[in-house]
C-alpha cells in the first residue's frame, strides 16, 4: 500500500513525534477550560499569525484524510499467489515439461478466468475514504494576523480561530468561544436523531453542521486527529477475511496434502520399480490435474453472482459477493435505530395538559396552540410533527399569524402573535419545558405537576415540548407538555420476530440516551437490557471480561459513538459470533466495514454505502429477512458443490493411485482427466440455479461435515470403480486402451450422479432438482457417452458397454445414497430442520 495525500506538505524530522504527541493530547484538550486550552495551543482569541500557521502546517500536516492507494498491478498479481493457484500453476509447468500443450492451454485459461473474476469482484467494492472526504468542509473563515480570511479547510492548524454560521460544515474539531449558543446537527457522526445545542466552551466535531446561530471557535485537532479522521482510519484499517475465503483455503489445503502424499508415494514406488522418469512426470501431471479444484473459485463465485442477481430483484444490492455467504451465517444483527428500526419521523404522544381558564382540559387544545407556534415552511422536524397532529375540525386556517419568531438556541423557544376570527390577539409559544415554565405566570401552581410529567416522559424515552399562551391580561399561562418520540416502523416488530425464529439475535445500536433506547427497544420486542456505551472507555483492564459478557448479553446500546460500534462488533466476533451491522451515516462506516456483513440501509450516505457489503434500496429491515433466506439457500448450493468437488477429487485420486500401485497401470490418460474435469465443471455450474431448502439457523462452514460426507462418497467410489475394472480386465479380458475408455465413462457418469447425492441431506429424491441442473447434468453425460462410444481422443467403446456402464453406475448410485444417509447421522446427528423451498 502506498499512502497518497491530496496535497503535499513540508516534512520535518520531528513531525511524526509531534503529530503523535498531539494526537494523544487531543482527547485531553477537549476537556480543558478555554484559558488552559489557549495556553497549551499558544494562541488567543485573535488567532495565529501567518508565520505560526505555516510552521504548524509543516508540523501537523494538512487538515485532510490520508487515503490508502493500492497498486492495481500488485493487487492483480496477488491472485496468482496461494495454495490453489500454486496447484494450478504446478500443473501448467508440468504440462509444459511433458509437452502436453492441449492441457497447458486449457489449464492456463482456467487459471486466468479465476484470477479475473476475483480481481474484478474486489475492484468493484469501491473506496470508503473518498466518500468520507466528500463530507468535509472545503472552505473555512479563519482569523490570521488579526484579519478574517477565507482559506481552504486543508490549511487549518491547531490554534486557529474560525467563525461558523448557519449551514456551515464544521471544518475541524474545535472548542466554542464566547457567544450565543448554536444548534449543531451531528447525527452523521453520533447517530443522535435531533440537533443538539452547544454553548461556549463546548466541543464541535469536524463534519457536523451548524443548523442555527453563529459563533467563533478555536481549533484543537485537524486531519486524522479529529473525531471524524479517527472514523476514517477505522474504515481504511479494517480488512476482514471472509469465512468463505477461509473455507475455500481449508478445502484447497486438504486436497493439496492428499495429492502431495499420493504423488510422493507413487514417486517412491516408481524409483523402486526403475520406471522411466518421463512416465513418472506424466503421472504427476495427471494426478495434479485430478487433484486441483480448478473451477472451485469460479463455480462458487458464479453461484454467489446468480444469488446476487436474485437479491437485486428484491431491492438488495450486493457490493461484495462473499457477503452473501457471510449473511447466511449471521447470528447477531446489530441494527441502527433511527430510520432503520424507527421511522426517523417525530410523532406526538398523548399530551399532558393543565386545566385553567385558557385551556378547559383538552389535549387537542394544547396541540392547537403548539401548532400556531409552528411554521411548516421552516421544515423543522418538531414543527412538522406538531402540525401533522392537528385535527381538521380545529380549523387551523381560521387563525391569522401576525408575527412569527423562529426557534433559536438562545431563547430555546418559538413564539407567534395570533389573531382569531373574533379579532382578538394573543401570543403562543412552545419550547424547552424549563424555559416555558420560567416564563409562565402560573409557575407556582403548576410546577410540581409539570416536572412530574416531564420526568415520566423522560423515563419512557420521550422528549418534552412545553406550550404556553397569554391570557386576557397578556400574561403567559403554562397549558401543557407534548411528548415527542420517533415511532417504530410498522414492519419492524414482525421483522425482529422473524429474525429470532431464524436463529438471529437483534441488538439495537443508537446515539440516543438510555431512556429513549429502552422505550424503543421495549416497543420493538427486543428487551430492555440496554447498555450505556459512554462508559466503555472508563473500563479497567480487569473489568474487560465482565464488559464483554455485558455486550454479548445486551439487547441494545445507547449513547454510542463510532469507536463504540467498532468495539461492540470486535467483542462479538471474538466471542465466535458472525455479526451483521446495519447503518446509514458516516458514524456507521467503521462498524459496517468491520462487521462480517455490513448492510447500508435505504438513504444511507455515500460513506456508509462504500463501507458496506450489502446496500438496501427499500426502507426498513423487512427486506433483510428475505435476503437472509436467499443467502442461506445460496449457502446450501455452495455447500453441496464443496461436498461434490472433494468427493470427486478423492474418487479419481484414490482410484488412479491404487491402480498404479497395485496393477502398475494408468487407468486414465491426461486428456481423459482434462475432459472429465471440463465436463464435470460445466455441469456443476448449473447448481447455482438448483432448488434448495434453507435452515432455520445461521449457516456456517462445518468442515468436519463437508470433508466427512465427501470422504465417504469419495472412498466408496473407487470400490465401485475397481469392481468394474475387475470385470473388464479379468472376466471379459478387455485390452488396456478399452479398459481406459471404460473407466473414463464410469468416472464421468458416476461423478455426475454424485451431484444428486451431494445436494440433499435426505434421500436424493427429497428435493426436486431444478430443470436447469437436470438438463446440464444429462446434457454433459450424453456428450461423455458419445465420446466414449465413438472414441473421440480415446479407443471406441461401443453402445453395449456404454449401456452396461450406465446400469452399473445407477446400482452404485442407490447404494451410495444409503451410505450417505448413515454418514449424515454420524457426522451431524443434531441436524436443523429445513424450511421453505426456493
Automatic annotation (TrEMBL):
TM helices/strands, residue ranges: 79-98, 104-120, 251-272, 284-311, 642-663, 669-689, 701-727, 739-758, 770-793, 799-815
Swiss-Prot/TrEMBL keywords: ATP-binding, Membrane, Nucleotide-binding, Translocase, Transmembrane, Transmembrane helix
Source organism superkingdom: Bacteria
Record membrane topology: Multi-pass membrane protein
Main location: membrane
Occurrences of domain Cation-transporting P-type ATPase N-terminal (ranges): 28-100
Statement: the UniProt record of this protein carries the keyword Transmembrane helix: yes
Pfam (any one): Hydrolase
Region called Disordered, residue ranges: 1-24
Keyword ATP-binding: yes
Subcellular compartments: Membrane
Family per similarity comment: Belongs to the cation transport ATPase (P-type) (TC 3.A.3) family. Type IIIA subfamily.
Name of the protein in its database record: Plasma-membrane proton-efflux P-type ATPase
Organism: Pseudoalteromonas arctica
